[in-house]
Amino acid sequence: MEVNKALTTRKAIRKFTDQQVTRTDIEAIVQLAQTTPTWVNSQSQRVYVAMGDTLSSIRTAQHDLVTSNAPLNSDLPMGHRSDWSTIAQQNMQDWNAGLVKTLGSDFRAKIDQEAANLYNAQAVVYLALTKGYSPWALYDLGAFGQSLMLAAQERGIDTMPAYQFIKYPQMLREHLSVTSDEDLILGIGLGYRDTKAPVNQIVADRMPLDAILTIQD
Ligand SMILES: Cc1cc2nc3c(=O)[nH]c(=O)nc-3n(C[C@H](O)[C@H](O)[C@H](O)COP(=O)(O)O)c2cc1C
After folding, report:
1. Can you give the pLDDT at residue 1?
2. For atom 28 of ligand 1, which residue has the closest CA?
3. What pLDDT sits at residue 197?
4. Cα of 162 from ligand 1 centre, angstroms
5. What percent of the chain has pLDDT above 70?
6. How far apart are CA 14 and CA 108, in angstroms?
7. Angle, nearest 10°, between helix axes 23-33 and 135-154?
8. Does the beta carbon of 162 sit less than 6 angstroms from any atom of ligand 1?
9. What is the pLDDT at residue 144?
10. What is the chain's mean pLDDT, rounded?
11. Ligand 1 touching residue 111 (CB < 6 A)
12. Residue 148: pLDDT over 70
């Protein structure tokens, strides 16, 4: 598959089928993501993957925390929408309006239900950084995540980058060997898309090119 195709077929998948992702696929995908450039080749990223019984335990624990309305405490603060630029806030509003059209007025409940089940992801890749990291490491980690998602797509494996995966980091530390001096930044779910699921019909529009691009010749 060409990069163009991987870029255009990737989308956030909020319900995966039960088809498993193999350890061989995961190793290959993470190794390809390692080609991502980093500041002075610093390679700050640390990668933890949960699958099989470990992921089942995390799924159960997450479900219990969601059900009991446990407070969210991600290592990277979620922040408030008002912290974002006016244009970014408008895009978020537009995205929400699109959700009503695709899923109906109870869209939030439908999405939350899938999130509580970790989107039925067959493996979750957790991206971590050692505490005190440079803002450049955060830049590098985002690029690493995108490389990982494209490498997965190239193999026909779909992905879901989500805050939902890392909103209870203390719980994750009980199941994964993430140390207390590492921050869990993002989780990326892996699996195969359930093509019939309504939550997978969500389309996220992009702004017109001239709204973000300035070329000065
Ligand atoms: C850092 C990050 C965190 C995200 N967290 C969530 C999340 O918690 N829940 C969710 O439904 N989508 C989440 N998403 C998915 C975005 O909503 C999605 O990528 C965006 O709407 C663009 O859609 P697309 O990925 O299908 O192109 C997240 C994406 C990123 C990059």
Report:
1. 57
2. 162
3. 98
4. 6
5. 100
6. 13
7. 130
8. yes
9. 99
10. 97
11. yes
12. yes
- Which residues, listed in sequence order, are joined to residue 51 by a DSSP beta bridge? 123
CA–CA dist 122, 143 (Å, integer): 23
Nearest CA to ligand 1 atom 20: 204
Counting from 1 in the atom list of ligand 1, the atom nearest the Cα of 14 is: 11
CA distance linking residue 72 with residue 171, whole number of Å: 11
- Hey, what amino acid is at 121? A
d(CA 185, CA 142): 10
Q: Which residue of 7, 9, 10, 164 sits with most ligand 1 atoms within 8 Å of its CB, as the best mutation to test the pocket? A: 164
What is the atom index within ligand 1 of the atom nearest the CA of 145?
31
* Domain ranges, ordered by start, for the chain: 3-212
Architecture of domain 3-212: 3-Layer(aba) Sandwich (3.40)
Give the model's pLDDT for residue 35. Answer: 98
Residue 126, both tokens: 């957790």
